[in-house]
């Protein structure tokens, strides 16, 4: 089973702040790559209620199904590689491919047959390794929304938080409480369904 703990910090950006970060870190348009996240949950938002999330990500030509669930520190991610055919079938039918991810879902008490495909979030992403971690800048589009975000992936939560806040201060960017992409996607989707 492929699992890892993800520790990252996030901050929503204005378009001007996004452009400032590109300039500060010498990131040009050619360094951005397209990433598509296809989200799944039950009609009752069972995963959302648990603070968990399920997606299929298409990055370059690879498809990976990932279940994210809360951990003591960060998030526990369970990954399962998919063929293009299996990924497309899951998007079309909502039927999940059996494997590590469905085993974890069952462990969480989620009925696999109740899962549905909810929609897609597309992100143009650039990554820049800096001394204290991986800087990620995203420009995302979903459900008639467009947003910009800075992520900072680290291995040490305490040091990472200090370094992230220092970076935002140096860039003169206010700290904004930022929900993760799937949470923003779900809240928008949920508000559209009401």
Question: What report would you give on this structure?
Answer:
The model has no long low-confidence stretch (mean pLDDT 92). The chain has a single domain (2-193), classed as Beta Barrel (Hypothetical Protein Pfu-838710-001), CATH 2.40.320. It is of the alpha+beta class. The longest helix is centred in the C-terminal third of the chain and has 14 residues, at 157-170. The chain is built from six helices and eight strands; from the N terminus they run E-H-E-H-E-E-E-H-H-E-E-E-H-H. It has helices at residues 15-24, 46-50, 84-93, 100-107, 157-170, 181-193; strands at residues 2-13, 33-42, 53-59, 62-70, 75-82, 115-130, 133-142, 145-154.
Spatial strand sequence of the major β-sheet = 1-5-4-3-2-6-7-8
Here the CATH topology equals: Hypothetical Protein Pfu-838710-001
Q: State Rg.
A: 17 Å
CATH class bucket = Mainly Beta
CATH architectural arrangement: Beta Barrel
Secondary structural class: alpha+beta
Strand content: 35-45%
Helix content: 25-40%
Q: CATH-wise, what's the superfamily?
A: Hypothetical Protein Pfu-838710-001
Low-confidence stretches: none
Number of helices: 6
For this structure, the quaternary state is single chain
- Element order: H for helix, E for strand: EHEHEEEHHEEEHH
Gap between N and C termini, in Å?
38 Å
What coarse outline follows from CA principal-axis ratios?
globular
- Total strands: 8
